[in-house]
Amino acid sequence: MSETRWLDEDEQRAWLRTAAVLELLPGALDSQLLRDSDLTHFEYFALASLSEAPERTLRITALAALTNATLPRLSRVLTGLEKSGLVKRATCSEDRRAKNVSLTEAGWAKVVQAAPGHVENVRRLVLDRLTPEQVQQLSDIAEALLGELDPEGKVFASTRS
Amino acid sequence: MSETRWLDEDEQRAWLRTAAVLELLPGALDSQLLRDSDLTHFEYFALASLSEAPERTLRITALAALTNATLPRLSRVLTGLEKSGLVKRATCSEDRRAKNVSLTEAGWAKVVQAAPGHVENVRRLVLDRLTPEQVQQLSDIAEALLGELDPEGKVFASTRS
DNA sequence: TTCTTATGGTTGCACCTACAACGATGTGTC
DNA sequence: GACACATCGTTGTAGGTGCAACCATAAGAA
């Protein structure tokens, strides 16, 4: 048992501010999307991820990795999106345990409609409040944190150094 | 209607990484505290905030501002903490609409027991993965974001510049 | 083949959170 | 004092999320 290394003043301030952002930012992202497009941020992110995949189709497990969701969570969200006609599921022919999710035309239209407002919101809340140097710093910091949070690099593999 | 300013490559990478951290970090904080102390991060934060207040007591509204919670959310969390004997509520004598929440002895003991593991986890997940310069950068970045997320500075007033 | 084990995905259950509506008290105006 | 209005906190209700248990299919061993 080693002694606890308590936070010094600078560390404490940095962490308290970070925790505050962690608490506030997700809600700010959700509320704009819910208001303007009737989507949670997670739903938007899943649809956007699909929209950039080949054939706008992915294995459910692959989409879960991209969006960093657990399978149960994604499964239920997909059920909702399917009811809304934005995606469809189909059993995979090669591996009949697996399923492919595809964006429907309506789903594609939804992403196209929602994207500008969402991007504008990300700028307003985050990017436009930082200098270009800070944006780069944030990118490096987040990358460092993902090393611990997502050690296998499964999530957002395309964005890792 | 102005044209959408889409994200350039650096901005997109920074944002995707940040969104990934936003998705993963809260769960990592919760799971250590739930495992070791049977508290969510939010519950821990509320108890810790109380533990640093004069008399270990705060108005419910003041605690909501400190923890950045809505009143309904905090009210229900306090109900749970009260059932566990960690806090108690008492109607405020000066303003009988209001109530004061106080940490009980058991609540204080819980904070004392939980703090070392939590601090260690914050170091493992965040602070120890960054250079001292990056910790300072993160502090400044979070401060800048709170300017938009919490314009009135009600939250974490003590940590703002 | 048959048995065992691993993987893909869904569902039961419990809990947490948001939004809106509500009861109760305080403040200002006439 | 009596009214309108704002504030403090709680609760009804609906929906999201995690964990564990579950079914179905696949892969490997005997």
Automatic annotation (TrEMBL), chains A, B:
<dbReference type="InterPro" id="IPR036390">
    <property type="entry name" value="WH_DNA-bd_sf"/>
</dbReference>
<protein>
    <submittedName>
        <fullName>MarR family transcriptional regulator</fullName>
    </submittedName>
</protein>
<feature type="domain" description="HTH marR-type">
    <location>
        <begin position="1"/>
        <end position="147"/>
    </location>
</feature>
<dbReference type="Pfam" id="PF01047">
    <property type="entry name" value="MarR"/>
</dbReference>
<dbReference type="GO" id="GO:0006950">
    <property type="term" value="P:response to stress"/>
</dbReference>
<dbReference type="InterPro" id="IPR000835">
    <property type="entry name" value="HTH_MarR-typ"/>
</dbReference>
<dbReference type="GO" id="GO:0003700">
    <property type="term" value="F:DNA-binding transcription factor activity"/>
</dbReference>
<dbReference type="InterPro" id="IPR036388">
    <property type="entry name" value="WH-like_DNA-bd_sf"/>
</dbReference>
<dbReference type="InterPro" id="IPR039422">
    <property type="entry name" value="MarR/SlyA-like"/>
</dbReference>
